[in-house]
Structures
1.
Amino acid sequence: MRPRAPIAALSRLENRADVTLTPPRDESLAVWVVQSKWPNGAWRTEIVPITVRQWTITAPPSDAAAPAEVWVSVVDRAGNQSTPVRVREPAGS
């Protein structure tokens, strides 16, 4: 059975993005999967320890802008991945 989707918020700053990560409650989780799409069309996937609650995504050398999209999911200890959620900046930012 898939874990429930996480909650995440995004803050873009020049060539990086800070992602605040909140796991679903009462789940036995192992890692975050943070996927970012860059203005040049390239994708990057990062596997992040579940204990991390703040993750900074920095631009690869080939791109000078913040990521165009960020998606986050969680993986439980049995290897089941949640549905990815698109991370957005809070309204009014």
2.
Amino acid sequence: MFIDIPVGHKYYNAIEYVNRLNIMSSMGGGTFQADSGITIEQMCKIVVCLLLGDVPLDANILDCSWSNRWSAPYVEYCRVSGYFNCDKECSAE
């Protein structure tokens, strides 16, 4: 699966599950980097994919400096749905 997540890793089953569902993937070089933390953008994708599946979402309703980022439709869905206060918590950095 990932070279840095051996069988027996405490999160192996969860990581394998979200990878199989295409919710999360490699950070490059075949690594998952489980200890690197998670961004608000990544969390929004997880929330949306677990709730709806990875469906195309319209990012055109965004009016912010990061509306062209990969995460824009996921962040916007979470903002509109009230899962995160993205006016204060979400940023592209």
3.
Amino acid sequence: MEAQETDTIEPERVPPSSRRIWGRTLAALLVTLIPFLILGTAFEEQIAEFVKTERSPWTMAGIITAVLAGDMALPIPSSAVITYAGAQLGVLGGTICS
């Protein structure tokens, strides 16, 4: 008896590397968005109060530098922080801090 050939079509499978990429992309999005969703308006009010408070340029330079250093591990919008640094410390001071 001869073996019969079957013409079965296997469903397309997504390669594991694609699944891994999508999983990491989703994780990165969640890590970035969840703190903002949890903290919400209370966090925005604290930031607004911080911005209104007058501080010395040296104190602001230290705070801005620390916030930008934290940007490596936390979801901090560094472009907004750098823009704020320029507004508070001037172009040269903001550039030096960033």
4.
Amino acid sequence: MTVRDIRSHLEEIYGVDVSPDVISRVTDAVWDELDEWRNRPLDEVYPTLYVDALNIKIRDGIVSNRPAYLARRRRFGGQETRPGDLDRRLRRGTLQVLAQCSH
């Protein structure tokens, strides 16, 4: 998201006008923590993995539809995780999935 996108989102959702300078300072302040969270190790085993695909248009010489696979994991105890990129999640340490569901 751009600073302009964030600013318009804050205006639309919360009705507040935030300067671009404040948005830049806040994002700079939390960027390292966000990057660390994105790259943290994942659980090795998930009992359930929900998989779906979103077809998006990609221009690579020609325009074609390609799937972007999304996954939502359910931990032991029933807690669900936020959706995210399936390939990236598997590279980050998930070794075993007990049940996979898709639609």
